[in-house]
Amino acid sequence: MSLIVQKYGGSSVGSVARIHAVATQIDALAGKGHQVAVVVSAMGDTTDRLVELAREVCPEPDARELDALLATGEMVSTALVAMALNQLGRKARSWNALQLPIETTAHAGRARIERVEATGLKKDLAGGVVPVVAGFQGRAEGGDLTTIGRGGSDTTAVALAVVLEADECQILTDVDGVYTTDPRMVPEARRLPCVSFEEMLELAGQGSRVLHLRSVEFAARYGMKLRVLSSFEPGPGTLICQEDPRVEAPVVSGIAFNRDEAVITVAGVPHEPGVAHAILKPISHGAIEVDMIVVNTAHEKSVDFSFTVHRDDYQQALELTREAAARYRGASVTGDDRVAKVAVVGSGMRSHAGVATRLFEALFIESINVRLVSTSEIKISVLVAEKDLERAVRALHRAYGLDVAVSH
Ligand code: ASP
Ligand code: MG
């Protein structure tokens, strides 16, 4: 008998029929003798609709009240799933974050889970009851409801799995696993049977939206087995776990991409210490996240300096950069918000030469210009024009042998 935490996403519980379907699956798993704890998201696009509703009432809603509103979505689905289970004769109880509690920091909208009180859950499990817990929400000191960031129910599920010392944390969603790249863009993409934590962290951080990034960080830190599965059809899904030392890691496991990028270039600033700091400091003070950074020191006296930000932050970042660069005579600031990032990820990169060469060759054949490059031990990211994105992803998917093998 094992203890399994299952998380069902919004589309998996998006209708009454889906709630019954999910209850049937949970009941079947519990019927095999497993202990099951469940985490659910809000039904369908409920959270989006609640955000819109808030904006209709008030263009900039108070953060505390917005969290109080958004947290209701998950409370609806927990109660409904528990009811559906009870109707099947399977004892179940709903729990929200105030009841358990799930303690978080007080940062409304982006709180972090600090502690999960598991007493109530353990009692349920020991008594043969399926606890159904609201994802995405928490309780700050003093009692306020918080939310932990969009898509955060995955992280709630992993936190629960860790405190319950579950054997596995399953994320049930509308795709049947993690793919080599987005199959909507590249039909030849394949489901990966398994992927290492560090590869998944890079993929999630680079725009693959299957899992909430923090859920992967959490699972990696505690060595919690994480599996992504479809709630719509049976299958083995993708297991995310520690690398198997007996098996050689694939050179490239997947290709992630992100359209929401913008690049800012400062040209002709003096080649002296502190310049990068002077330009980037106002950006970070504006709480704008900078991603790729490249300093080009080809000239003797001056440098060109480029960095990327999220497209939503582009205008603000451009203004801040213009102000900061104004102190350097002859400096110019330009930008482009029609760029996209493509990242090639694989643990085997560490031990293989020529990974970058193949990337540049594949993009060269497609006549695609590379604007910026950044690398980590297991990742190479390039910035390209947005119009070239699809061709770049397809070309790289092919170049690294990730396309589905064609059977003859
Ligand atoms: N319902 C929340 C959202 O839509 C949390 C989640 O689905 O994980 O972001
Ligand atoms: Mg999600």
Give a verbal description of the structure.
- The structure is a single chain.
- The protein is α/β, with parallel strands linked by helices and 408 residues long.
- The protein has 2 domains: 3-174, Acetylglutamate kinase-like (Carbamate kinase), CATH 3.40.1160; 255-399, 2-Layer Sandwich (VC0802-like).
- Helices cover 33% and strands 27% of the residues.
- It has helices spanning 16-31, 46-57, 63-87, 119-126, 153-163, 197-205, 213-222, 275-285, 314-325, 355-365, 389-399, and strands at residues 3-8, 35-40, 92-95, 102-104, 113-116, 130-134, 137-139, 145-147, 168-173, 194-196, 226-230, 238-241, 254-270, 290-296, 302-310, 332-345, 372-376, 379-385.
- The chain has an 8-stranded mixed β-sheet with strand order 3-6-2-1-9-11-12-10, sandwiched between helices. Strands 14-15-13-16-18-17 form a 6-stranded antiparallel β-sheet. Strands 4-5 form a two-stranded antiparallel ribbon.
- The longest helix is centred in the N-terminal third of the chain and has 25 residues, at 63-87.
- The radius of gyration is 23 Å and the shape is globular.
- The mean pLDDT is 94.
- It binds aspartic acid and magnesium ion.
- Aspartic acid binds next to loops.
Task: Please provide a brief summary of the model.
The protein contains eleven helices and 18 strands. The chain is α/β, with parallel strands linked by helices. The strands form four sheets. An eight-stranded mixed beta sheet has the order 3-6-2-1-9-11-12-10, sandwiched between helices.
